[in-house]
Amino acid sequence: MVTNAASLGRSGVHDFILIRASAVVLACYTIFLVGFIACSSPLTYDAWHGLFSTLPMKVFTLLALVAVLVHAWIGIWQVLTDYVKCVSLRGVLQFVFVIAAFCYLAAGILIVWGV
After folding, report:
1. What are the φ/ψ torsions at residue 4 (nearest 5 degrees)?
2. Does residue 15 contact residue 75 with C-beta atoms inside 8 Å?
3. 22 burial class (0-12, 13-18, 19+ CB within 10 angstroms)?
4. pTM of the model
5. Contact (CB, 8 A) for 94 and 77
6. CA dist 74 to 66, 67, 69, 77, Å?
7. What are the CA-CA distances from residue 44 to residues 3, 31, 48, 50 (Å)?
C-alpha cells in the first residue's frame, strides 16, 4: 500500500473517518453557539465573556479549532491532488496552506486561552 506524506491519515479510510469526526465536532460547536445566542436575551459582553471564560468552553473551542484544522487540511489536500497536476506547485500550495492553518490555530489558542 502506498502512503502519502501530505495526507493527514494513513489511508483514505482514516481520512474519511477524520473528516467525518471533525464535521461532527464542528456541527456540535455551531449548534451550541447558535443555541447560546438564541437563549441569551440581551447578548452582552459580560454574557459572552462569562461563556468563554469557563474551562469546558475553552476546551470545546480548542477542540473545534483542531477540528477546523483537520477538516481543512484533508479537504485542501484532496482538492489540490485532484486539480493541481504540477507537483512542485502543489507542494508549494500545500506548504503555504499548512503554515497559514497553523498560524490560525496558534492565534486561536492565544485568543481563547489569553496567553
Report:
1. -110, 130
2. no
3. buried
4. 0.82
5. yes
6. 12, 11, 9, 5
7. 50, 19, 6, 10
From residue 26, alpha-carbon distances to 7, 46, 60, 95 in Å are 21, 25, 10, 24
Count of residues making up the chain:
115
What number of other Cβ atoms are within 10 A of residue 75's Cβ?
13
Helices (H), the chain: 12-39, 45-52, 55-83, 87-113
- CA within 13 Å, CB half, 22: 20
pLDDT in tens, 50-73: 999 999 999 999 999 999 999 999
Contact assessment for residue 109 and residue 115, using Cβ atoms and an 8 Å cutoff: yes
The amino acid present at 58, given as its one-letter code, is: K
